């Protein structure tokens, strides 16, 4: 009997609040400054806002769903 070998998979990200994510991108900033900087990055990444809006994202949302988080990682890279 052959042993089944599964490929390495990237774990599915959990929903996270934007402030926590921003601090992962900018760990030496204050939470408010990190959030402003990340939002600036998100606005400058061509196509990111449209991709997020297609998932129901609104700028005032405090948290990102796992799907939205994966989209952010696709555009900005993982922190």
Q: Count the strands?
A: 2
Structural class: mainly alpha
- Poorly predicted tracts of residues: none
- Write out the strand line-up for the largest beta sheet, numbering strands in chain order: 1-2
Number of helices: 4
**Global outline:** globular
Report the sheet-strand fraction.
Answer: 5-15%
Mean pLDDT: 88
Q: State the order of secondary-structure elements, H for helix, E for strand.
A: EHHHEH
The largest pleated sheet is described as:
2 strands, antiparallel
What level of helicity do the residues show?
A: 40-55%
Distance between the termini: 42 Å
Overall radius of gyration: 15 Å
Compose a concise summary of this entry.
This protein has 79 residues and is mainly alpha-helical.
Report on the structure:
The chain is globular, with a radius of gyration of 15 Å. Helix 1 packs across helix 2 (31-44). The chain has helices at 18-25, 31-44, 48-53, 66-76; strands at 16-17, 63-64. It has a two-stranded antiparallel ribbon. It is mainly α and 79 residues long. The relative contact order is 0.19.
Key words describing this protein structure:
79 residues; mainly alpha; two-stranded antiparallel sheet; 4 helices; 2 strands
Write the layout of secondary structure elements.
Layout: E1 16-17, H1 18-25, H2 31-44, H3 48-53, E2 63-64, H4 66-76
Antiparallel strand pairs: 1-2
